[in-house]
Amino acid sequence: MLPYQEQYLELLHTAENSTGPSADGLEPEQFVVAAIEANRRFRAAVETGTALLRENLFPLLGNILSASKAEIDNLGEFADSISGGDVCLNYHIHLALMSYARHYNLRDMLIKELYYVGMALYNLEYMLRPNMLRLYTTRMRMYFAESASYFDTEYDNIEDPEIRGFIHRSMGNIALAYDINDAESATAKLAAVTRSINILSDPDVRAKTPSLPWDTYLYKSHQERTSLLGFLRSGNAGPEAFAQVLESAQIVQDRQLMAAREKGDPLQPRWQYTYMAAKYHSGSITIEDFLDSMYIMSGACADDDFGAQSMFTHVNIPAVYINYAKYLNNPKYEEKLSGCVQKMMSKMFSWIVRAPDKTSEQLIFYIKQILYVYNEYPGCPTFFEVVQNFFAACHPTAYVRMWIAGQISKQLTLWAIDDCPEKLVGLVGCKGISDVIWNRDALADFAVRAGRLYDIGMFHFVNIDASACRGLFQEEQALLHLHSHCGAAMLDRCRSTAVFADIAKGHHCRFDEKGGYPVDFYPSESPVSSMIYIVAAAGALSSCAKETASRYRPEREFDEVCESLEEGSGKRYAPFVAELLKSPDRREQLRVSIESWKSEAYLDMYRRREQMK
What we know:
- It is a single chain.
- This protein is mostly helical.
- Among the domains are: 286-381; 391-612, Hypothetical protein af1432, CATH 1.10.3210.
- The chain contains 30 helices and no strands.
- It has helices spanning 3-14, 28-56, 58-62, 69-82, 87-103, 107-126, 137-153, 161-173, 183-201, 203-208, 214-226, 229-234, 239-263, 269-281, 287-300, 308-325, 331-354, 361-373, 383-394, 396-419, 433-438, 440-453, 462-466, 474-480, 483-491, 501-506, 529-542, 558-567, 575-580, 584-612.
- The longest helix is centred in the N-terminal third of the chain and has 29 residues, at 28-56.
């Protein structure tokens, strides 16, 4: 690799990411200093990485058709080296290589690059899941399908076994572009993966390229078909679909049992869960039996094991347990259910906060699953506390920024009670101005919680903020714009947080509703419109707290933000909010408070992480 590429890789490997320092062995004040310094180092690494790529890589990608063979080979090597760390940069490199192959009619290279571009799009799309929003599935399916189409047209003319392998991998991956959330898509997914299984099982096809890992390809296809268990759960699947999915589940289970016996290892929990779920869906065991097996699996996992299988057990199994519990129709089990959820969540938080890699793609996905299925059972943590714990463990800069936004929201709300109480009528049950004045504490608490939840959707994109040392690409900007929708979907599920859903959805909308996002949401129609306007300003003001901003958020000066609030009055910001900061005394009070709140926020995060342990 070239020197700039090695330097960029070094930045990826050594720069402190947004998880911040471990609290182990540190006093609270030391933790604050270490966390702030980690943020500084990471932002510096981002500046260095951006400069390296702008000077050395981007000009080549922009003029890819003039690249030499040596440069093309080098780009492929560099893309492979960052595939697990910088997804979007990997995508742009492979997109350029695909264009090169298509332009020069390099068939074998094109087949391979179609596969890699499809996989990069899948990895980008993966950040949205389990939310129903999709940006790239159609393009992903097109790339995989084009690569797979060479099986019907050119397969016998291709001499390189590796390229034939890419065709089969692409054919199997077409299924990745389908969801299981509706019957039509799930049926298409089942058809795609079943076709792949049939071809991979064909002895005549295998005989053409005996060196390929056919059994591995086939096994992975059966694993993919097993993922359609959720389709069976929906009740829309016919008997043939049941038979195919359960057949794959049995094959995967048998393979896992054989591997476990040969190595003397226990059965991998992911496939143990899959097999038990298949038994439940086929009617072999009751929902109570299934839940009990998941709880036992969770309790048996060692707390000091931080491998991939342990991650599944500690984090995904609680999500599975909570999700399947909604099918329970047994009042006698409900008390036991609450106790089990409470213990599993406590065990999970303790594991996450001590895990060495808190921003791995798989861990973040498992956590998001919990955020989309969590139920506030009696005696269990509220959803608010669950959210705070996850941010404190995995995305500390966002935790600190929202903590500060909560304090700013509280201060603005208290000033609004004094200056314009009529603007707060409707919040926390206030029917008139007198209610606003009498419910001062309740309104202040509401504002704090609104500020500490408004950016919850950013949890979807922890990896954008923590896994690259450069500025953002267009694709990442588009994904980030969806955080408001994702956040609202998470909050709307639980009774205690549903009232904050509109705040999460609307804090990037303009007051005059002539811009911002999402474009189909109008804050003025929301019953909490005044708090949406307050939190929008608080979010802008929180950017003044240096060493708390994410890498894509510029650090701004306090006076600059206040001026933007004043200039944007009636346009971006609500006039009553901008008016609250007209007083020089209030501005100075808030300026001093924000700096103080930064330290308090880090200390609060430290305490929360210690409690989680």
